[in-house]
Design goal:
Strand content: 15-25%
Number of strands: 8
Structural class: alpha+beta
Shape: rod-shaped
Oligomer: single chain
């Protein structure tokens, strides 16, 4: 009876040591006397007590880490980066798990290597760019880091899921100078726009003035033509009237010079009425009137001849 009790006392601890529970999202690496033996998957697993040992439990879930570091551009400007890295074990194949378990002495060594590799890749890229180019390189930096780091991580048993550059900032003095440059460029652009607007306004005003001058000239030309036509018609009507008057007087055997005398007296009367105080000098002597009458008669005879 006592022997059976002893066996039970020994059997229960051995039985407890023969089973191991592996949580979901985790795999366990089993070694025999320090040498890799096999992998335990999630669930209840059997192992040989005192012979097999769980060397390490490895999470196959995604993990993230935040990074903060500084880089220097080609023109010696300090750039501060804040990034988030998301990574995970590449797969659950045996060789991959062995790389994860045995490539690094511990988790701290792996994290240090991972961070330094990413920082070094970004610093190397930023060192070839100028300060003004860096802010536009966010996508290029992410792509280049992914291409470079993925190959390295695969040899360690991991793969890069995502890399996000959450913040890219320069030192305060550089930020102030960049703000001044942006402000001056904006002022320059505003001045150029204002100059263009003023030029357009003056050009349009000149065009409008030119059009107005052309329109006024055309109107004056038309008006002059109309005035000329009116004067010509007036003269024609006067000539017709004089011709008819002369014919009537001739038919009645009267001297046609009376018409000229009447026109002369009417002209003097018109000068007097419309002079508005202006002084008009006329030769009122008998010789002067006779001279004017001869000139008017000669003009009338010349017209009749034509």
């Amino acid at each position: 009876m006592s022997f059976l009790l002893v066996l039970l006392v020994i059997a229960f601890p051995l039985l407890a040591l023969s089973f191991a529970i592996v949580n979901q999202g985790t795999v366990a690496v089993v070694t025999i006397f320090g040498k890799y033996q096999r992998i335990m998957t999630p669930g209840l697993n059997f192992k040989i007590p005192f012979v097999e040992a769980i060397f390490k439990k490895i999470s196959i879930q995604s993990r993230s880490i935040e990074l903060e570091f500084q880089a220097i551009t080609a023109d010696q400007a300090n750039v501060n980066f804040k990034a988030m890295l998301v990574y995970a074990v590449m797969n659950q194949e045996e060789q991959t798990i062995k790389n994860v378990a045995f490539k690094f002495m511990d988790e701290r060594s792996f994290m240090q290597a991972l961070i330094r590799t990413i920082e070094g890749t970004i610093r190397a890229l930023v060192a070839t760019k100028r300060q003004a180019e860096v802010l536009g390189l966010r996508s290029e930096i992410v792509i280049q880091v992914k291409e470079h780091i993925d190959n390295t991580l695969e040899t360690w048993g991991y793969h890069l899921i995502d890399l996000q550059l959450n913040d890219i900032a320069f030192d305060e003095a550089i930020m102030r100078s960049m703000a001044q440059i942006v402000a001056s460029n904006n002022l320059k652009a505003a001045a150029e726009n204002e100059g263009q607007a003023l030029l357009i306004t003056k050009t349009k005003a000149a065009e409008a003035e030119g059009n107005a001058i052309r329109i006024a000239a055309e109107a004056e030309k038309v008006a002059a033509q109309l005035r000329g036509q009116g004067v010509a018609l007036f003269r024609e009507e006067v000539a017709k009237g004089m011709a008819e008057s002369a014919k009537v007087m001739k038919d009645n055997q009267l001297d046609a010079s009376l018409i000229l005398f009447s026109m002369w007296t009417e002209a003097i009367k018109h000068f007097a009425e419309q002079g508005k105080g202006n002084v008009i000098f006329l030769d009122g002597s008998t010789e002067g009137m006779e001279k004017n009458m001869k000139q008017l008669t000669a003009l009338q005879q010349l017209k009749e001849v034509k």
